[in-house]
Design brief:
Chain lengths: 285, 206, 251
């Protein structure tokens, strides 16, 4: 008789399930371990002065304030350069380009760009922006170089966001008589904002993560800015660059404190990205 | 496509044909009853008339259902609406047949052949017109209309003969009058059949 | 009968496919004209010519004239933006923008340059009232349009269309995605609107065409087979193909 009360224990499924749980626990444990390790190493040395002063032989201080400021500068200037180009390019590719082949070529180029090892960007930036264009070691140099690196991320995300906007919105807008750019500005871009923002935050993450590129382009300067705008032409080491040098000089206490700060920043950005995604998903269509 | 509707339409045709046959049978038996006194036959006619009434309701319901469920248009709609009108005339024919059956029978007069002819003609008109509806045949319907002229003509002959007999043999007056009434009923049956034919013609005309 | 639009020998090609063959007809003003026919017969394609939505399709060739109020809509001097102000469109799937109800209705007027808030308020209210939606949404004009039900969204799309004060309204199967109650609300709405607008509706639903339209055109394989008063088409179709279609014998 074919009774229903015949629940078999399927051993293979159970074993696989256990293995999967184990591997995810392992990943979580490793990450947690790393963060805790950094925390533990940095905790004994934490002091306010470290985060509120800059390195100065004159004043005898050894803080990372200037590096924090430099990091912010690099992020802002890079985004200012890359966003218009990336988003503008995405809009062109998504809404204006007629030739499918052309779109494919550009997409391919962007793919290639995103696969190039970052140290090569460092080389390119150092020689092209630094020597050829005469920018030397400066935040502007670093930002220009990083722009090239994050362009694929920005463009791809913006393109995706635009293609996810339902075709029916375009039809409705056309039916009312809206011109193309007006339609893009008032209907498509607002709908695509969550996707575009995601791209920007991912890009920011990439910027913060870079060290090698910046050493060769933005330099390792640790002076506080003397003028707001002028500072972008000066050499400015970011937090990651400073971390590299502290490790080189075996200042592990400083290194771990910078590491802790960076981990917090990264966690913060991820949380922000998640929050934005959730908030706009609820509203959007 | 629409095979279910066509099936339903086929069923409607069957029911109409049946109602027509019932009427024909009623006409046949009631015309016989004019010249013979037969209780069984009289009961048969009564039963037939009941069944004709019942058929009217059956077909009416069927048509309503078709309209409700299938929303017929164009010629489909014309056929259903024609069917609805036809059954009321058929029901009246049933009534007339019963009236004829309830007349007291009388002796054979010379006009008996006229009566027999009128009965036969009515039956054929009925048959023809229903065939015309079912088969979508315009010519048949037009023929059926023409047949009524014969019925009307026969009626006039009966009337004239009746008047003569009453004048010559007043004792037979009552029977002759019954005969006249029977003839009148047949003439009415003919008119109802013409109504049906005209209905059919209208439903076929494009 | 006042003729609002005259169509002369219109042919449309998608690449090499001859999608509309020599269509000629007159659309009467202030009446509802319905286009019916089986899938792929060209009725939606034909509808989209009236507001030049075909301009956005690649590889389309159109010949023939479409004269609206004496002007050919394909004349090179015509500004499509102005045409689409005069000839509005409502689509099959309700497609309100992901904005507030107010912004949806105000979108059209803003496109055409109206910025004054007082004016916009009045236009929004009037359009929503005309679309029989105002009472239902007057307390939540600034909430998202996507929170409305399907039937309400479609009426919103009608309001959005009315806001630019068109003269002709094109509707492409406007109720095929809606439930029966919403459908009948919109049908009632269209019957009231025809007093002020000329309406052309494409519909799959023949009972709908019979219920609300004054004239009906039957299309088949790109040709217009028969065009007449609706009562005539449904009671006495002249062409056998029309009769076969409306009685459901094919299609």
């Amino acid at each position: 008789m074919n009774s229903l009360y015949n629940k078999k224990v399927r051993y293979r499924d159970e074993v696989l399930k256990a293995l999967i749980y184990l591997s995810s626990l392992l990943v979580f444990a490793l990450v947690l371990m790393m963060i805790v390790f950094i925390l533990v190493k940095a905790l004994p040395y934490l002091n306010l002065a470290f985060f509120t002063t800059a390195k100065s032989t004159l004043k005898g201080t050894d803080g990372i304030l200037s590096n924090m400021i430099n990091t912010i500068y690099v992020i802002v200037v890079t985004l200012l350069i890359a966003c218009p180009i990336g988003i503008g390019g995405a809009i062109y590719l998504s809404e204006y380009a007629k030739n499918q082949k052309f779109v494919e070529i550009i997409s391919f180029a962007l793919e290639v760009l995103s696969g190039i090892p970052s140290i090569i960007y460092g080389l390119f930036g150092m020689i092209f922006f630094g020597e050829k264009l005469g920018l030397g070691y400066s935040i502007l140099n670093g930002s220009l170089t990083l722009s090239l690196m994050i362009l694929p991320i920005l463009t791809r995300n913006a393109q995706l966001a635009l293609s996810n906007v339902p075709q029916s919105y375009r039809e409705a807008a056309r039916g009312i008589g809206a011109q193309k750019w007006y339609m893009i500005r008032t209907v498509l871009l607002p709908s695509a904002i969550p996707g575009i923002l995601t791209g920007i935050i991912l890009a920011m993450g990439r910027i913060v993560a870079e060290s090698a590129v910046l050493i060769f382009t933005a330099g390792a300067g640790y002076f506080m800015p003397s003028s707001i705008l002028g500072h972008i032409l000066k050499s400015g080491g970011t937090l990651t660059v400073r971390l590299y040098f502290e490790m080189n000089n075996a200042n592990y206490s400083a290194a771990f404190m910078i590491a802790l700060l960076l981990v917090v920043v990264v966690l913060g950005m991820n949380a922000l990205a998640k929050w934005i995604a959730r908030r706009f998903d609820v509203n959007g269509g | 496509m629409r095979s279910r509707y066509d099936e339903e339409l086929g069923q409607l045709h069957v029911e109409l044909t049946k109602m027509g046959s019932l009427c024909e049978e009623a006409i046949e038996i009631s015309s016989q009853l004019l010249f013979e006194d037969n209780i069984e036959k009289r009961q048969t006619v009564q039963a037939l008339e009941d069944e004709i009434d019942h058929q009217e309701r059956v077909i009416e319901n069927h048509c309503m259902r078709l309209i409700l469920l299938e929303q017929p248009v164009a010629s489909d709609l014309k056929r259903v609406s024609a069917a609805l009108k036809m059954i009321s005339d058929l029901e009246r024919i049933g009534d007339q047949a019963l009236d004829i059956a309830q007349l007291p029978p009388f002796a054979r007069f010379s006009m008996q052949t006229h009566i027999d002819d009128m009965a036969a003609m009515c039956q054929e008109m009925l048959r023809t017109t229903i065939r015309a509806f079912v088969g979508n045949e315009l010519k048949l319907a037009q023929e059926a209309v023409k047949m009524d002229d014969i019925v009307d003509d026969l009626f006039m002959q009966v009337k004239d003969a009746a008047a003569k007999i009453i004048a010559e043999q007043p004792a037979l007056a009552e029977d002759v009058l019954n005969l006249l009434m029977a003839a009148k009923y047949f003439e009415r049956i003919g008119d109802h059949t013409v109504n049906i034919s005209e209905c059919v013609i209208r439903s076929l005309n494009h | 009968m006042d003729s609002k639009i005259q169509v002369n020998q219109v042919n449309l090609y998608y690449g090499s496919k001859h999608a509309l063959k020599n269509v000629s007809m007159e659309i009467p003003s202030h009446q509802i004209t319905a286009f019916i026919g089986p899938s792929g017969c060209g009725k939606s394609t034909f509808l989209k010519i009236f507001n030049r939505m075909q301009d956005y399709v690649d590889n389309v060739k159109i010949s023939g004239d479409i004269i609206l109020d004496g002007e050919n809509i394909y004349d090179p001097r015509v500004d499509p933006t102005i045409l689409r102000k005069k000839v509005g469109m409502v689509f099959q799937q309700p497609n309100p923008f992901p904005m507030s109800i107010y912004d949806n209705v105000a979108y059209g007027p803003r496109v055409h340059g109206i910025k004054n808030k007082v004016k916009l308020d009045a236009i929004v209210r009037e359009s929503l009232e005309q679309a029989a939606l105002y009472e239902e949404v007057k307390d939540r004009l600034y909430s998202s349009a996507l929170g409305l039900s399907g039937g309400q969204q479609q009426r919103l799309c009608i309001a959005r269309c009315l806001a630019v004060k068109p003269e002709v309204i094109l509707l492409d199967e406007p109720t095929s995605a809606l439930d029966p109650i919403s459908t009948s609300k919109i049908e009632e709405l269209l019957m009231t609107l025809k007093e002020h607008y000329t309406i052309i509706i494409v519909t799959h639903n023949m009972q709908q065409a019979a219920r609300i339209s004054d004239k009906t055109a039957f299309f088949l394989l790109g040709e217009m087979i028969e065009y007449n008063d609706t009562m005539e088409i449904f009671a006495n179709p002249k062409d056998k193909r029309t009769e076969d279609y409306i009685t459901g014998r094919f299609g």
